[in-house]
């Protein structure tokens, strides 16, 4: 008896979600000192084709934060900060939330959903060895029709209006929010091209 296609995809998806993040993480992690100016950080991001950089405390050498292209856009450009004068330490997101390389993809998704994150640095023995993104997690799911909202909305939300976990925009129904997340937060960014492969 043949296994229905939808069922086999569901099994594949369940197996994928049990995969350790180390198997899908991006190993090209860039770390800059917190004293680097925003403009230089943006130049490094563009040159390396990445949408985020990790930030190291220039005094103690610890990686303490992350700066994304969205941080540059909303925390610097939108507020007319001098990108040559202001350093990335002033716009970084901190404290840095990380996951161990053995953590399963489903657990990484849960952490992202609970904390409203789109990226998680991956650590091994205290050292950062990669970064996993919501895009890489969702983009690799066998079931392309999976609802992004189901992955990202807090489970205990009681509001009748749905709120985007990233920008807090309000939506009347789940489909609108899902399209918004796909188009705005997983789509083309400030420094990267459109990497989506949605059908």
Describe the 3D structure:
This protein is of the alpha/beta class. It has 2 domains: 17-146, CBS-domain (Roll); 147-189, no CATH class. It has helices at residues 5-17, 38-48, 69-77, 105-115, 134-139, 148-152, 174-185; strands spanning 31-33, 52-56, 63-68, 99-100, 119-124, 127-133, 162-163, 170-171. The protein has a 3-stranded mixed β-sheet. The protein has a 3-stranded mixed β-sheet with strand order 4-5-6. A two-stranded antiparallel sheet has the order 7-8. Strand 4 (99-100), helix 4 (105-115) and strand 5 form a beta-alpha-beta unit. The longest helix is centred in the first third of the chain and has 13 residues, at 5-17. It is globular, with a radius of gyration of 18 Å. The two termini are 29 Å apart. Residues 1-5, 143-158 and 188-199 have low confidence and may be disordered.
Helix and strand layout, with pairings?
Blueprint: H1 5-17, E1 31-33, H2 38-48, E2 52-56, E3 63-68, H3 69-77, E4 99-100, H4 105-115, E5 119-124, E6 127-133, H5 134-139, H6 148-152, E7 162-163, E8 170-171, H7 174-185
Parallel strand pairs: 1-2, 4-5
Antiparallel strand pairs: 2-3, 5-6, 7-8
């Amino acid at each position: 008896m043949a296994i229905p296609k939808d069922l086999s995809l569901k099994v594949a998806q369940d197996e994928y979600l049990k995969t350790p993040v180390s198997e899908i993480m991006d190993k090209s992690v860039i770390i800059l000192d917190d004293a680097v100016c925003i403009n230089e950080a943006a130049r490094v991001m563009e040159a390396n084709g990445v949408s985020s950089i990790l930030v190291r405390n220039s005094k103690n050498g610890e990686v303490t934060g992350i700066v994304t292209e969205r941080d540059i856009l909303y925390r610097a450009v939108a507020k007319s900060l001098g990108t040559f004068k202001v350093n990335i330490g002033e716009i970084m997101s901190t404290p840095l939330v990380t996951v161990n390389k053995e953590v399963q993809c489903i657990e990484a998704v849960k952490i992202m959903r609970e904390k409203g994150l789109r990226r998680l640095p991956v650590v091994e023995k205290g050292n950062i060895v990669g970064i996993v993104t919501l895009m890489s997690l969702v983009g690799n799911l066998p079931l392309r029709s999976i609802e992004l909202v189901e992955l990202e909305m807090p489970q205990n939300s009681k509001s009748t209006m749905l709120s985007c976990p990233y920008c807090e925009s309000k939506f009347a129904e789940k489909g609108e929010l899902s399209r918004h997340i796909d188009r705005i937060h997983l789509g083309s960014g400030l420094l990267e091209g459109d990497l989506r492969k949605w059908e």
